[in-house]
Amino acid sequence: MNPFKTFKLESNEHVATLSLTRAQTLNAITPQFMDELGTACEQLASDVETRVLIITGTGRGFCSGLDLNALAQIGTTAPPEELRVLVRHWQEVFNALENLPQVTIAAINGITLGAGIEMILCCDFRVASTRALFGLPETKLGIIPDLGGLTRLTRTVGPSWAKEMVLRARNISAMEALRIGLLNRVADHGDMMGVARKWATQFAELPPPAVRQAKRLINSTFDMSLAEGLRVAQDAQLELLNTEEFRTAVRAAAEELMKEA
What is the pTM of this model? Predict the structure, then answer.
């Protein structure tokens, strides 16, 4: 039974799929969604069976950003300190998504705006339908992306394109998003989930300790010096060399080479 009200979480063969289910609102984000996503991330963080997480939407939208009715109510009624606590909590939820040990794939089926873009930027890979559309309309509302989007977007596409998307607040197509580096792949609408699932299967077949360490180090060493990055990579490698997964993979690779010789 699915315990969540704003999305459905299913698992199959080491791959979990989280499907946003508020299609009537283009899967707009509500405070309840953020609380439930935080709970799901807590569960996944300790789930050793799940190796890959796919996040997708239902209907025409992947995620249209923060629910405008909820945003208006929060912005006009909550005192500043309460707002600060709420924003920090939501930032921590997206941080938890980014730092999951699983490989995360955003399978973007349609319209993706505002906090929806901030959410896909927390994922390791972004595969989009040709029907997908991307935009950060916050400045039109007199606000900014505040859930990590400014920093993650700049790191992903560079300052120039980040300014183009944020300051101009214009929507871009899936192909343009691919060209600037926001996406990893664009597929025909009917093929998009198939591509995401194929990638998920490939990741799930890799030795989990190596995948987890590689993801952790890529995320954590982004701003490190080369010397510090080399040190932490050395420590991680020494751990991996002592795993049964490494020994099994090396034996299998050696046997395969012998067959080909």
Answer: 0.94
